[in-house]
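Hello,

I think I submitted the flavin-adenine dinucleotide job twice by accident. Can you confirm which output corresponds to this input? Input:
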Amino acid sequence: MPTPSPARVHDCTVVANEPIARDVFALRISAPALVSALEPGQFVNIAVPGNAMSLLRIPLSYAAADAEAGTIDIWYAVVGEGTERLSRMQPGDSTTVLGPGGHGWTIPEGCRRALLVAGGIGVPPVLCLARELAQKGIPYTVCIGAATADTLVGEHEFEEAGSPVISIATDDGSAGYHGFVTDAAEQVLELEGDTFDYVATCGPEPMMAKVAAAAVHAGVFCEASVERMMSCGFGACATCAVETTGGMKGACMCGPVFDAKEVVW
Ligand SMILES: Cc1cc2nc3c(=O)[nH]c(=O)nc-3n(C[C@H](O)[C@H](O)[C@H](O)COP(=O)(O)OP(=O)(O)OC[C@H]3O[C@@H](n4cnc5c(N)ncnc54)[C@H](O)[C@@H]3O)c2cc1C
Ligand code: FES
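Support: Only one job matched these inputs. Its output is below.
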């Protein structure tokens, strides 16, 4: 019998919904009962009103949760009809959110130092982890990649969370290093791999595959937050299958965070 999902439907209200980069919005929702149940790396599934033909919720990671205020911060890219509709929600609008979804990051016991590698809109769950690491007093190093400078998010927030971003890379060279963020991550692991006990990554799949390979090469435990299309978000539909060395596993229940060595990239 599979473990039942802890996800429940919660009422929520939009507190803010503003653009923070090109086609990227920061959404703050108030959902006090859900905040205390969330762990870094988990996701929520939000219903977006306005299209009677679209019954599916949108799975989204979260960047921050404030237990005192009862709010959850989500950063999302507008990529299609659902996220476009979400971008039109206004403060005061109400909807429902299903969560918490899946399981999050597993910071290894006794971790001395972590390397965080985030690409594009993969930043939010990694930022959430950064705050957790800072709270635990574990130093970490961050590499962020984006297609262009105007889609880059998270630099200031990582710094606020407690660690300077050591490397920014953009595909077109409009900010930081001209090239892929994986170059920086590979170099850090090559030179200082033995000082890390943990690598965590979220972003485009080829990026995560390269980070995972570099971590394996350096002998460092690595986790990756994997995105899949999700219809239900709680283990009932099998749309979210991820190929792993242990067979097909659902990203909504067995992930979205996986041991990177388990994923067949
Ligand atoms: C666990 C999880 C966490 C996520 N966290 C974030 C986040 O923090 N911020 C963010 O911007 N996005 C995140 N996503 C992706 C987000 O769910 C999709 O971008 C969104 O569902 C697209 O909906 P749409 O109706 O606008 O696009 P659609 O019109 O449905 O599709 C537009 C494009 O997006 C692709 N797409 C649709 N759904 C997904 C999906 N679930 N995963 C990957 N690609 C998809 C489609 O293949 C298509 O190319 C996450 C996805 C998962 C599974
Ligand atoms: S989304 Fe339905 S089983 Fe994962």
